[in-house]
Amino acid sequence: MIKKYIVPGVLCIALGIGLGFFFFQQYNPKENTAKVSGTPEKVTFLQFGVYSSEDSMKKNTTSISNYTYIIQDQKYYVFVAMTQDEKNLQKLKEYYKGLGYDTYAKEFTISNATFLETLGQYDLMLSETTEQKTISAICSQVIAKYEELIASDSHEGNAN
């Protein structure tokens, strides 16, 4: 009586091991994980100004609608745009110069993979346009994404 259950039992165990091995081989953990931080990359920020206090910063940035800032050495560094592309940097400088603002490029190291990926997509769009409204909208979106993903809790930063 036990003999009639041995052969089906062994077949079920062998089938289970075979399927388990097959599914284990199909799983690739690198494809199934969300990338939150990765290799640090340089990002060029377009600096609008440096201020000694938050009040001074707020008074002097009323003419710009979207910006972010970093507090470093008790000074407020205000940024209006970000890019990883040299041609886009020149386009952004010319755009802000056309608005009457002098800006300065400052490099930072960012390791937030989600932000870097988003910035790459916006850099592609920026490289394809010369329209002022589009450039303004792209700058606003990049600043908003930076605020959401990196600077939402603290405006402390480390510049290179």
Summarize the structure.
The chain has five helices and four strands. The chain has about 160 residues and is of the alpha+beta class.
Structure, described:
This protein is 48% helix and 24% strand. The chain is built from five helices and four strands, in the order H-E-H-E-E-H-E-H-H. A four-stranded antiparallel β-sheet has the order 2-3-1-4, sandwiched between helices. A hairpin with a 2-residue loop joins strand 2 (68-72) and strand 3. Helix 4 packs antiparallel against helix 5. The model is unreliable at 32-36 and 153-160 (pLDDT under 50).
Task: State mean pLDDT (0 to 100 scale).
Answer: 84
> What is the number of strand segments?
4
Q: Strand count, sense and closure of the main sheet? A: 4 strands, antiparallel
CA radius of gyration is: 26 Å
Oligomer: single chain
How helix-rich are the residues, as a percent range?
A: 40-55%
Q: What's the topology here?
A:
Layout: H1 3-26, E1 37-51, H2 54-60, E2 68-72, E3 75-83, H3 86-98, E4 104-112, H4 113-127, H5 132-149
Antiparallel strand pairs: 1-3, 1-4, 2-3
